[in-house]
Design brief:
Blueprint: E1 7-12, E2 18-22, H1 26-32, H2 40-48, E3 52-55, E4 62-69, E5 72-81, E6 84-93, E7 100-101, E8 106-110, E9 115-119, E10 128-133, E11 136-140, E12 146-152
Parallel strand pairs: 2-6
Antiparallel strand pairs: 1-2, 3-4, 3-7, 4-5, 5-6, 8-9, 9-12, 10-11, 11-12
């Protein structure tokens, strides 16, 4: 993928790096995996809002982005070099490949129910919830570990607009 190649997309991921692919490279992915024919927007959605991200055990510069798709999963595989990423491949799959699970934060805003829910682990691990007061509910897994919280009575200042979420990571 040369620098003169025309970008098909370039998106920011929850890992804080951009991922891109080119008009020339995408047809190769569709050829390798015909079930992805015409599904470029779904791959963009996986990269921007994955259900889970894993780091490859074989190559620490490779990340696998997963998202549920009907009865299967879709996986987008990205290589990250010098803070930038590029799509290596994408494919449908039945399970998440073994790898190091990455920290992933999922934020759900329900303007009708006036709730804000934040998970830092897989929401499917939810076992029980505990209201701790003032409309704050802790979401716990089977071991009693907190995996998220829900804030009741949450109203955004501009209800007609989407909630703007800013992710900021403190320097190490």
């Amino acid at each position: 993928m040369g620098e003169e190649s025309q970008a098909l997309f370039e998106v920011m991921t929850p890992l804080g790096c951009t991922v891109r692919t080119t008009v020339e490279y995408w047809p190769l992915i569709e050829t390798k995996h015909p079930k992805l024919d015409g599904r470029v927007q779904e791959i963009v959605h996986i990269l921007t809002s994955p259900d889970q991200i894993c780091q490859s055990r074989q190559d620490t510069a490779v990340y696998l982005f997963y998202r549920a798709d009907q009865s299967r999963l879709l996986c987008a595989v990205v290589k990250r070099l010098d803070g930038e990423g590029f799509l290596i491949t994408a494919y449908p799959c039945d399970r998440i490949k073994e790898g190091e699970s990455m920290a992933h934060i999922k934020v759900i805003h329900d303007p009708v129910g006036e709730t804000l829910t934040v998970y830092w682990d897989d929401p499917q691990r939810e076992e029980t919830c505990e209201e701790v007061g003032h409309g704050i509910i802790l979401i716990k897994d089977v071991q009693g570990e907190v995996i998220g919280f829900e804030r009741l009575y949450f109203k955004s200042k501009e209800p007609s607009q989407e909630l703007d979420v800013v992710l900021q990571t403190a320097p190490l």
